[in-house]
Amino acid sequence: MTLKIIVLAKHAADPESEIRVSADGKGVDEKGLVFDINDWDRYAIEEAIRIKEQHGGEVIVVGVGYADDTLRKCLAMGADRAIKIPIDTGMDSYLTAKAVKEAIADEGFDLILTGLMSQDYNNALVGAMLAGMLGIPFSTAVTSISVEDDKIRVVRELEGGYGEENILPLPALLTVQSGINEPRYVSIMGIKRAKTKELKEISVDAGEGMIQVDKVYVPPVEKAELIEGSPDEIAEKLIGILKDRGLI
Questions:
Q1: How far apart are alpha carbons 78 and 9 in whole angstroms?
Q2: To pair with 137 at 20 to 30 A between CA atoms, which of 105, 125, 192, 205?
Q3: The whole model's pTM is what?
């Protein structure tokens, strides 16, 4: 059974980047930030390519925003074509899911893969929202995938190291947990082939978002207090601090 697989890939800021609040106080200043493919999405892309290599079919990568570099990297990994949706949805997961729904309306997919969450906002909402909008079954935090005729068998991660096995009819959507595979390196030949693959821009009207940002700020940092004195004096001061803060 050949599959048409759609994978969502976000062009996200490196979590190790130094974050600064934008001048208007309602976002993040992107100047100086390092962007790359979202780490969880990297595993989703790899898993889609492995399924294609085993069963045949097509892998289409979809990016919301100005994600040309990330989409080209996915094409270099082995995706067949890419769709760019050139709108800025910010941290609005609902708007992102709605934009993707509109862009893939005519694709006739069998399977959608997304990363479990994004490395910038960690909302873990887009995949589940998109499945709800499309009216298809979904499973989250997936750590194993196997295709069985017109169904797909998955294992999803639960708390405490447990796993849950689900069988879903196709079409379906899965959000992929990191560690499901070992993403491949992008080769020089892959980069050259990516330049010849289709990267189509689709404009959509996703309507109004669900989130309005009033203020973005860096959490206040309290300096550590060094307590000096004899052991008895230190103990007495420490007890006093804990009492003052209502901790004892």
A1: 14
A2: 205
A3: 0.86
